[in-house]
Amino acid sequence: MSLKRLFWLVSIALMSLFLLLAAGLVATQWNTYRNSAEGVPVVRHIQLAMRVMELISFERGPANSVLGANETEMPAARAELEQARLNSDRSITVLLYVLHGYPNRNYPAIAAGIAQLHTGLATARRNIDNLARRPLSARRSDEITDAVNEMIALIGRPLVAITDLAAIATNADPMLRDSISSARLVASLREYAGEIGTQFTAAIATHRPLRSDEIIAISKLTGRAEQMRFILDLQLRSYVSDRQIRAALDAVDISYFSQGLPILNRMLQIGLKSGEYGLSTGALTALYGPKMQSIVLLRDQIMNDAFNGAVRRTEHARQVLIGVIALALLALAVLYLLLRTIHKRVVTPMLESTRLFVALANGELDTAIPAPRGADEISNLFRAMAAFKDSSIARISLEKEREAFITQLQATSDTDFLTGLMNRRAFFTQGQSMFANAQRYQHNLALILMDIDYFKRVNDDHGHQTGDIVLRQVAALCRLMHRKGDIVVRYGGEEFLMLLPNTNLEQAAMVAEKLRIAIASQRVTAVSGAELQLSASFGVAAYANDNTLEALIWRADKALYQAKNSGRNQVKQAL
Q: What's the pTM?
């Protein structure tokens, strides 16, 4: 085969490979852009579904007013209810229009669920209207409760739609996951807040004390609302620099938790003793309803932030796609010109052999060396290049084996053989660096020292094999609880240590408490078959101008002994 023909074959292969790589890069970036673009409208669709959920929940307020209104109050209450129903119907109509018009194979099923919601809503409204036509004295408490609960049950439909739409959005743009999750949590908080107020409807309408089931429901719903507020604070930490979202969250604290819930608490105290609430269902709705608006504003703020972020990512993906296409075309043109130039100049075997030698010198050891065909200078040069290639491959292979062996030795020396955790020697190597960083920049740093309770008794009563099982199980829990960047160590014997960067004392105590609960819930089967209940004591200390890492460990150890002396199975914080 002539060298000229060989050159063209190599050129065609290089061009094909480049085109495949360029096409792969463009296709990958195109998928990124397409997915990001698909996620943008779905965010708005989720907002529409949340709006439906909000307005149906809001509609319960005027409905409660109608169920508790007398003949004098009824006209105004009825007008307010009709307006609320009109708003709910409009929101459902808009959502159905969007779901039917958007090209996604999952949307028809979501639209069917919303259509069923509309049907169920019509049935619930008829029941409310039938009750409202009676005189107030003829409306039985259980009938009012059933009508209210029928409206509450409808919330499940838009919630399912929100969940399905959220799955579609996060599948297209995973960066939306946290924002949508937080917004869904806020929407659920709004629903719980509405349900708490709804529990008073039947009692106020019939002027009776609260029943035990209503009291229990109010307590549960209030507890869930408080729990959601705590979870929201954790989830929204990523927005700590976003003043608008932090302000909206603070507004929820002030408007709802500090002003709205106390209104219902006063009603609860009255309902525990008598049925003389001093106001009608409509008055309660007018007083309590506006306090929930801050929750809706927080939800909208989060969703708007998610939408704006999705738009920014889509625009960035579009610009990157254009850049990748432009660079691919430019590189293709450069490659074509380069090959054409080489074609004109590569006319002798010496130039071809020179190209091969340069490729080997640059480390391209997968370059094929032509087999020598004679004893001339070119053949001798090929033999020399083949020998150079073989020696380079052998040298690289030896270097890789040596590096792998060193890595293996390093891992073995740094790892506790029984638990697979970092050992004490390796901890002081890495921990000193982390402590020095915290000391230099005054960053938060916390240390948890844990000791398995009565571990000696386990070894004495059930043998060291059972003790090893206990150590491995506790090590697995420690490994499960730690975050990326934390250091988890078997410190010695039955002692374990966790070093947590960027963590204050309270946060570290929460981690220790979670781990304590996880260990206390474990059951270990001894070699003898006996079931063992585990527990552990914890000492927690946070960096506070300690001079050395050993001083920080000493404070945690002191807190650990306080935990042991106080009865074990508990967490103590160093002062």
A: 0.56
